[in-house]
Amino acid sequence: MEDRLQAYRQPMVTATGIILGFVLNFSSAWVKGDSSISDGVAYAVFGLVIVGLLCLILVLSRVLRMGVEPERAAKYYSTTLTLFLIGVSCAVGGIMIDMFSNFMDS
User: Fold this and answer.
1) For residue range 40-78, what is the model confidence (pLDDT) as tens digits?
2) Residue 5, Cβ neighbours under 10 Å: how many?
3) Is-contact 63 19, C-beta < 8 A?
4) Residue from 50, 58, 48 nearest 83 by CA
5) Can you tell me whether residue 36 is helix, strand or coil?
6) Which of 51, 58, 53 is nearest to 80 (CA)?
7) Cα–Cα distance between 77 and 74 in angstroms, integer?
8) 82 CB contacts (<8 Å, ≥6 apart)?
9) Given this model, what pLDDT does residue 53 score?
10) Are the C-beta atoms of 20 and 54 separated by less than 8 Å?
11) What is the pLDDT of residue 82?
12) Does the structure show a pLDDT above 90 at 5?
């Protein structure tokens, strides 16, 4: 059985793992840190980071799944790539909101 996703598997796992590491590091520092941002902004940052983390974990799960039928491989990878982009965008969006609010607060 031909695995059409093999060429994409390793780079996607590497990229997802690295980004997950950065987002988890930000999250652990953000939770422990004392910030003067408003509750609404804090909930927005939290929501975006959580959605980003969940999407990236789902991407990791999908890309490590073996046995995707060859005729479905292109659609499957396209969906996985879309989830990856949503996850990265949400996580970076949350981090940028936190950075901007801390910058404006100073």
Assistant:
1) 889 999 999 999 999 999 999 999 988 888 888 889 999
2) 20
3) no
4) 58
5) coil
6) 58
7) 5
8) none
9) 97
10) no
11) 97
12) no
**Contacts for 63 with CB less than 8 Å, ≥ 6 apart:** 5, 8, 9, 12, 13, 16, 80
Q: Which residue has the higher pLDDT, 36 or 99?
A: 99
For the chain, give every domain's residue range. 6-105
Tokens of 84: 């990856």
Q: Which helix (H) or strand (E) holds 66?
A: none
CA-based R_g, the chain, Å: 17
**Amino acid letter at 15?**
A
Kindly state the tokens that stand for 15.
């990229």
d(CA 2, CA 68): 10
Q: Would the pTM count as exceeding 0.90? A: no
Residues 95, 7: Cα–Cα separation, whole Å? 31
Residue 2 has what pLDDT? 67
Q: For the stretch 71-96, what's the b/e string if a residue is b when 16 or more beta carbons lie within 10 angstroms of its beta carbon?
A: eebeebbeebeebbebbbebbbbbbe
Q: Give the span between the Cα atoms of 63 and 81, in whole angstroms.
A: 9
